């Protein structure tokens, strides 16, 4: 009985005893979860929270001038062209044996640029030489027979007068002489034809040599040894030229002026030209002629302009911008030069013409004063400077100080804008 009571006492819960110590495992789990949430928040802020800027396309502002002492009455764009340029080809179809030119090489008039395989031409000349020799031999043979026939006719003439031979024999000798004389004329003409044929064969041999038509610079090399060249476009792998030669002294500028402004242009008018490649270099020029024909589709008239400076930096097909000048009046101050920007860089905000300049990856709003329209460009007389970078087609929500990123059209990757 006592043993049962003792066992029951052992099963009784002692509520006065201190509670067991709590486990720290849950605390560590909570701390780890909190830290993970903080890290995820930082990553989300870095990826999504930080602004990467508005993607924009840009263009560079081009400075224009007016030469100080003269005012520009009209600006236009065009290209440098060569009035004397030739794609040199052979006069005959043949295989190229040797090419003696390279791009950028200077050549003189008559200088050999290439040679063709002369096998066929040499064979033709050898045959013509043999035929000319045979014709000359034939002439000598007939001439000897004519001399013999003439002597025989003279001898029979004397005998006929002495009645030693019949008149028929004499007439026969005279007929033979006249026949040989006609044969001699024919032989001489055949010899002349053979000589002409030989000279033509010599020309054929000379046609296998391609020479420069004038002094200039080689701008293109179009053929290689072993290729077939032909003066006619036959298609396939046949070349139509050996190379292109440009007379650098014949370079000039061609621009197209709108019909509405062509009245401002006059022959001998002073012009200031600026190459797109060298925008700080102002080249003096003057109007050569106004082509008396208009382009119906573009409503423009072509104007030829002579360059007064010869420089190796000026090459054909360079883009150029020209300003047609007039002498400034003594009481009229010189016009301050402006800049040219694409029309897409200008927009209207709050009733004002504005442009956005990219500086340190941020857009800066500039109020501008717009002047003349020059094709797809606009003249800006105030608000912008040459060399600055402007935003093309600025988004409607773009504001002063917004962060921007410059992207190149057609590229998937973008890079931050730099000043």
Provide the descriptors you would attach to this structure in a database record:
419 residues; alpha+beta; conserved putative lor/sdh protein from methanococcus maripaludis s2 fold; Elongation Factor Tu (Ef-tu), domain 3; OB fold (Dihydrolipoamide Acetyltransferase, E2P); 4 domains; six-stranded antiparallel β-barrel; four-stranded mixed beta sheet; 4 helices; disordered C terminus; transmembrane helix; membrane; Efflux RND transporter periplasmic adaptor subunit; transmembrane
Summarize this structure briefly.
The protein is α+β, with helices and mostly antiparallel strands and 419 residues long. It has helices at 2-11, 25-49, 119-161, 167-206, and strands spanning 54-60, 62-63, 70-82, 85-88, 94-99, 106-107, 112-116, 209-211, 216-221, 228-229, 243-246, 251-258, 270-275, 282-295, 300-307, 319-327, 339-342, 347-349, 352-359, 362-367, 369-374, 377-382, 389-392, 404-407, 414-416.
Structure description:
Residues 340-406 form the YknX-like C-terminal permuted SH3-like domain. It is a single chain. The protein is α+β, with helices and mostly antiparallel strands and 419 residues long. It folds into four domains: 54-64 and 337-416, conserved putative lor/sdh protein from methanococcus maripaludis s2 fold (Beta Barrel); 70-83 and 249-327, Beta Barrel (Elongation Factor Tu (Ef-tu), domain 3), CATH 2.40.30; 94-117 and 208-246, RNA polymerase II/Efflux pump adaptor protein, barrel-sandwich hybrid domain (OB fold (Dihydrolipoamide Acetyltransferase, E2P)), CATH 2.40.50; 119-206. 28% of the residues lie in helices and 34% in strands. It has a six-stranded antiparallel barrel. It has a four-stranded mixed β-sheet with strand order 23-1-24-25, with no helix packed on it. Strands 2-17-22-21 form a four-stranded antiparallel β-sheet, with no helix packed on it. The longest helix has 43 residues, at 119-161. The protein is elongated, with a radius of gyration of 47 Å. Mean pLDDT is 81; it is low at 412-419.
């Amino acid at each position: 009985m006592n043993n049962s009571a003792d066992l029951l006492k052992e099963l009784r819960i002692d509520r006065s005893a201190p509670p067991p110590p709590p486990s720290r495992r849950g605390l560590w789990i909570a701390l780890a979860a909190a830290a993970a949430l903080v890290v995820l928040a930082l990553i989300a802020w870095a990826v999504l929270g930080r602004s990467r800027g508005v993607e924009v396309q840009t263009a560079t502002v081009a400075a224009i001038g007016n030469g100080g002492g003269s005012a520009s009455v009209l600006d236009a764009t065009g290209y440098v062209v060569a009035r004397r340029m030739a794609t040199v080809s052979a006069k005959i179809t043949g295989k190229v044996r040797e090419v003696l030119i390279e791009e950028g090489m200077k050549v003189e008039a008559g200088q050999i640029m290439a040679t063709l395989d002369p096998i066929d031409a040499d064979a033709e000349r050898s045959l013509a030489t043999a035929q000319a020799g045979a014709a000359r031999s034939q002439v000598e043979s007939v001439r000897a027979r004519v001399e013999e026939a003439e002597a025989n006719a003279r001898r029979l003439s004397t005998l006929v007068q002495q009645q030693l031979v019949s008149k028929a024999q004499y007439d026969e000798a005279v007929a033979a002489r006249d026949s040989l004389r006609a044969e001699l004329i024919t032989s001489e003409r055949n010899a002349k034809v053979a000589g002409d044929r030989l000279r033509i064969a010599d020309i054929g041999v000379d046609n296998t040599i391609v020479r420069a038509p004038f002094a200039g610079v080689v701008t293109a090399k179009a053929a290689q040894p072993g290729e077939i060249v032909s003066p006619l476009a036959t298609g396939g792998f046949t070349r139509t030229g050996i190379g292109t030669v440009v007379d650098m002294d014949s370079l000039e500028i061609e621009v197209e002026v709108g019909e509405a402004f062509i009245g401002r242009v006059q022959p001998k008018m002073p012009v200031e030209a600026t190459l797109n490649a060298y925008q700080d270099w102002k080249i003096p020029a003057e109007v050569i002629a106004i082509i008396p024909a208009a382009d119906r589709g573009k409503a423009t008239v072509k104007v030829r302009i002579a360059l007064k400076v010869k420089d190796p930096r000026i090459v054909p097909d360079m883009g150029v911008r020209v300003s047609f000048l007039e002498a400034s009046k003594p009481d009229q101050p010189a016009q301050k030069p402006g800049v040219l920007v694409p029309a897409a860089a200008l927009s209207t905000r709050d009733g004002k013409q504005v442009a956005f300049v990219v500086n340190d990856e941020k857009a800066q709003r500039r109020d501008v004063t717009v002047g003349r329209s020059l094709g797809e460009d606009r003249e800006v007389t105030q608000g912008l400077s040459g060399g600055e970078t402007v935003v093309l087609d600025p988004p409607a929500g773009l504001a002063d100080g917004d962060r921007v990123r410059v992207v190149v059209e057609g590229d998937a990757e973008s890079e931050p804008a730099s000043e």
